[in-house]
Amino acid sequence: MLPEVILAALILLVTFTFIVTRQLGAAVSTYAVQSWLLGGVSIALFADSHLIQLLLFGLLTIAVKGIAVPQILRRRSSFALAGRRETVYFVRFPTALLIGAGLTLIGFIVATRIPYPHQLLPESVLGIALAVLLLGLFTTTARRDAILQVGGLLAAENGLLLVGLVLAPGLSLLIEFAIVLDVLIAVLVMGFLVARMHQEVSTTDTSELTRLRG
Amino acid sequence: MALFRSHVLAAAVGQVVAILTVVGFSPLLKGVIENLKAKVQSRQGPSVLQPYYDLRKLLGKERTVTGNVSFLFRVAPYVVFATPVAFAMLIPVLTAMPLSWALMADMVGSGFVIGIGGFFGNLAAMDSGSPYGGLGSSRSRFVSSLAEPTFIVVFFAVGFISGGTVPFAVNGALFTSSSHIVPSHALVAAAFLMVVLAEAGRLPLDNPNSSQELSMIESSRLFEFSGPDQALMEWGGFMKLFVLLIVWLNVLVLPLGLADAITVPALLVAILTLSAKMLGAAVLLVGIESTLAKIRILRVPEYLGGSFVLAFLGLVLYTVGR
């Protein structure tokens, strides 16, 4: 049980790194690390419970979200990475960090209220999972850059999968397959939209999108 | 009575071995870091023993002191050298059980001990009247005062979780308890590493290899020292990084392999495991220093504020999870 909890705690740390990273490329790498850790949790759970779908899910997560999706994001965002490396929030960084701490706290408090089926993972992992979900959603809403908004959504989705691992480990493999492939499609579509946005307004900074043009 | 006496003797021997380990191996850590860093940059790099050669060279030179300094300038190198040595008595360097002098101070007290060295270093740097010395001490105070809240909250969190603030007593408590302290533990350990890097003048805040005076923090305080004084100041700096990393490794991250008794094989095993852990820490430091750029001085509050938030969150999550 302990390796899973340690990996989950590392996921929380990595998500905080994701929140405070200024560079686009570093943020994408952070997301990749988060996905590897999530896959690691799943594989460690397989070692405990011998549910074969957990192993497959872990490997799938690492392959698709740890390798393929970051690669797509990097390729899609290469034009933005070349021109401008740092991004900002709508709020200042220290404020973002404080909001992140508050959201983590909310995640942990909510986790104590959820009727908790004593499954394979302890309750603190549920708190981490909800915190990661909230932190990802916060990034999506507060980051200015469209690429990182996509990244925030993906990070939130990792948190959601961790919630799934806590509450219903060994869900049907079919469903997990569908989720992971959905992410792949979603990233392709969103990457296309970001590229399109860059083509039209030559930036991926969403704060520039204030005028409606016919 | 005879047993008691031999116990005291054994504790004293253990303590001396621990101090000699810190004094003797800290330049090696510096040498290993420099060598690995050069390897990462595709250079051959200096020998891992280079810091020892430098220290020997400096100790053999004559001492030159400007005329307009007070006694502080002469005293400071000894204080800077002595404080990490005193600190080494208070933390679990090689042994898991507290030795006879270890209960002189808890974590807050040992924080004060390490602070005295920085204080004297700053006073001496300003004493010489060199503009770079003043700049360096002002900046290093700036960094240290911002790192202070994180240190305090880390001590609070660790003391809260383990029910004590003596580093030896804390040692096992973070690891033997239930899994709900793991998130807090990870956050506190990360926060502590961030402030250790800040305190020891390592890369995200201060480039130890910098040759530009205006961007220096720690090294600009050493400009006016020469000969044995400079050797003591530099050696004190190596030891400071070494003991802070020992606290991080042996108290917060991996307390494995500490000696349970003062016997020759147990102490040898402890020294070997410590070397292995230090090698791991050196690789980590090289990784950090090769991937991160030095952050602007005005962003230092963001970095240390981040470490504070992590430590505070570690403290709060522990209470929520209970």
Outline of the structure:
Chain A has 214 residues and is mainly alpha-helical. Chain A contains eight helices and no strands. Chain A has one domain (2-208).
Word description of this protein:
- The complex is a heterodimer of chains A (214) and B (322).
- Chain A is an all-alpha fold and 214 residues long.
- Chain A is built from eight helices and no strands.
- Chain A is globular and about 55 Å long.
- Chain B has ten helices and no strands.
- Chain B is mostly helical.
- The radius of gyration of chain B is 20 Å and the shape is globular.
- Classes of the chains: A mainly alpha (214), B mainly alpha (322).
- Chain A binds chain B through residues 1-2, 5-6, 8-10, 12-13, 16, 20, 93-94, 97-98, 100-101, 104-105, 108-109, 112, 122-124, 127-128, and chain B through 178-180, 182-183, 185-187, 190, 301-302, 305-306, 309-310, 312-313, 316-317, 320-321.
The SSE string of chain B, one letter per element, is HHHHHHHHHH
Helical content band of chain A: over 70%
Task: Determine Rg of chain A (CA atoms, Å).
Answer: 17 Å
Distance between the termini of chain A: 57 Å
Question: How is the secondary structure organized here?
Answer:
The complex is a heterodimer of chains A (214) and B (322).
Chain A: H1 2-20, H2 24-49, H3 52-76, H4 78-83, H5 93-113, H6 123-142, H7 146-167, H8 173-201
Helix pairs in contact in A: 1-2, 1-6, 2-3, 2-7, 3-8, 5-6, 6-7, 7-8
Chain B: H1 2-40, H2 50-60, H3 71-90, H4 107-127, H5 131-162, H6 167-176, H7 182-199, H8 227-253, H9 264-291, H10 300-321
Helix pairs in contact in B: 1-3, 1-8, 1-9, 2-8, 3-4, 3-8, 4-5, 5-6, 5-7, 5-10, 6-8, 7-8, 7-10, 8-9
